[in-house]
């Protein structure tokens, strides 16, 4: 199983009045190319299925974060690292449950930060139909 850790929480503006956070995972250095960014991949290169999976993954990750926030905060200093590792594993599982790999999730997050068209496409899958 690919081990990853939280690198940052990045705000992605999806609408003028709303913002939601997308955790970005950094892959371990053991995986060559795991840290590669999506570079110049156009928004239309992501399929609707991938973006639906991304929206599901985002919701799953947010649920994990809410569940683990208090556990991390309440952990003794000596246990924090172990608790964060468990939280990270839960987030990886949440992303994988959506059908994406953590690297695919990362790539979409990073691309959406720079591509308003992709952000709009993601947003379109967040609204109920």
Fold and architecture overview:
- This protein is of the alpha+beta class.
- It has four helices and two strands; from the N terminus they run ββαααα.
- A two-stranded antiparallel ribbon has the order 1-2.
- A hairpin with a 2-residue loop joins strand 1 (4-15) and strand 2 (18-27).
- Helix 1 packs antiparallel against helix 2 (80-97) and helix 3 (102-114) packs across helix 4 (116-126).
- The protein is elongated, with a radius of gyration of 15 Å.
Q: How many strand segments? A: 2
Strand content: 15-25%
Q: Fraction of residues in helices?
A: 40-55%
Q: Any low-confidence stretches, pLDDT <50, length ≥5?
A: 1-22, 26-40
Q: In a nutshell, what does this entry contain?
A:
It is elongated and about 45 Å long. The protein has four helices and two strands, in the order ββαααα.
SSE blueprint and pairings:
Blueprint (H helix, E strand, L loop, with lengths): L3 E12 L2 E10 L20 H27 L5 H18 L4 H13 L1 H11 L3
Antiparallel strand pairs: 1-2
Helix pairs in contact: 1-2, 1-4, 3-4
Features of this protein?
two-stranded antiparallel ribbon, alpha+beta, disordered N terminus, 129 residues, 17% strand
């Amino acid at each position: 199983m690919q081990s990853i850790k939280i690198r940052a929480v990045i705000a992605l503006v999806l609408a003028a009045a709303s913002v939601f956070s997308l955790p970005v995972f950094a892959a371990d250095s053991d995986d060559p190319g795991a840290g590669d960014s999506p570079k110049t991949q156009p928004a239309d290169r992501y399929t609707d299925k991938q973006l639906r999976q991304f929206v599901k993954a985002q919701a799953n990750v947010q649920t994990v974060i809410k569940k683990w926030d208090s556990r991390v905060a309440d952990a003794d200093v000596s246990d924090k690292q172990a608790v964060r590792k468990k939280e990270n594993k839960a987030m990886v599982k949440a992303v994988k449950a959506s059908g994406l790999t953590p690297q695919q999730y990362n790539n979409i997050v990073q691309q959406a930060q720079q591509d308003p068209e992709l952000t709009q496409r993601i947003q379109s899958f967040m609204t109920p139909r």
